[in-house]
Amino acid sequence: MTLRVRVSMFAILLPIMALISAPARAAAPGDVVSAQPTTVYLLPGQLLKVPVNAWHVLYNSTSSTGQLNTVSGTLLVPKAGYPLGARPIIGYAVGTHGLGDQCAPSVSMSQGREAELALVSLFLLKGFAVAMTDYEGLGTPGQHTYMAGISQGHAVLDSIRAATRVSGSGLSARAPVGVMGYSQGGASAGWAAQLQPSYAPELRLRGVAAGGVPADLYAVATHLDGSADFGLAAAAGVGYDAAYPELDLEADLNDRGRALLADAADDCVAELSKLAGLRFSDLSPVDLLNQPKWRARLAENRLGAIAPRVPMFLYHARGDQIIPLAVGATLRSEYCGAGVNARWVALPAPDHVTGAIEGGPLAIEWLALRILGLPAFDNC
């Protein structure tokens, strides 16, 4: 009798001891750190609540230099069921919001002042779930690594991974996936497309729509030098400095440059207009863009060297005053030359913002067809 009791106790304790002694699984990109229900509004003053299940999510991702980090974002899931199998997931990459945490899309959506929610709603109306990253350092501790493309691509892909791991979301890791973004989001979408085969091969990516893409930031920054939108180039300098500490931007600035960029480091996009008309030479006694350390990191984050394995929809405003049409056209040529199934649309839009308005619905419909499994036809 005593022997039987001992054997029974051993049988009970053995699996418990195994669990205790087993090493904990290391944190990995896409793991959910926390997911809290939230409410999203269409209009300021918290008017017109968006009728979805929503979570503010903290999740693990990877920095530009390969370090595990924590990124925030928002997951939106329609309340109605999806009738065609696993509910599709869209990784939506927002355009430039700014450098301060108060500028994060997760904040603006909770306050009813997120302009891009109009486009996101078109995905929700189709029954698709949408994962929207805030990007590294925007809504989490540390400086936002604005325009550091590799980090942004990781953040987009990991927001999709995290979406499938949020308890109660009902999302499957086997769901069809799409990615869309414009401007900063266009670069993020492009990097998600290029990195997905090696970084997140388990995701069932069907297509990527990227508009107004600043594929070559050196060319864009040179174009913006002295322009009304110079603040965007300066913000990218702050972002790269955060992503790559060896750049040590502050050491190369003059007193005026240090004061201006310190003041801009927590600005939202509209506030960056105070830097309009300035040049890099106003901020630094050295030729920042042509220093070897900057050229190397800018080249590392230039899109086009890796061929995405999924169809791409690329769109760009002919009159884009921020990101020249030639930058987008060059990316299209490089993708086509590498055999990518790329669809290119040069929009009649007279400026950058109008390009987002004109091209967004086209991109959404193109991406929805890829999600449904219809073939894509390039125009290379």
Q: Can you summarize this structure?
A:
It comes from Nonomuraea solani. By secondary structure, the chain is α/β, with parallel strands linked by helices. Helices cover 38% and strands 19% of the residues.
Strand content: 15-25%
The CATH class label of the largest domain is Alpha Beta
The side-by-side strand order for the widest beta sheet comes to: 1-4-5-7-6-8-9-10-11
CATH architectural name of the largest domain? 3-Layer(aba) Sandwich
Quick one: how many beta strands? 11
What sort of overall outline do the alpha carbons produce when their principal axes are compared?
globular
Number of domains: 2
Could you tell me the radius of gyration in angstroms? 22 Å
- CATH names the topology of the largest domain as Rossmann fold
**Main sheet: strands, sense, barrel:** 9 strands, mixed
* Termini separation: 81 Å
In sequence order, what are the helices and strands, one letter per element? HEEEEEEHHEHEHEHHHHHEHEH
Mean pLDDT across all amino acids: 93
Helix and strand composition category: alpha/beta
- Please report the number of helical segments: 12
- Outline the low-pLDDT stretches: 1-23
CATH superfamily of the largest domain: Alpha/Beta hydrolase fold, catalytic domain
Assign a percent range to the helix content.
25-40%
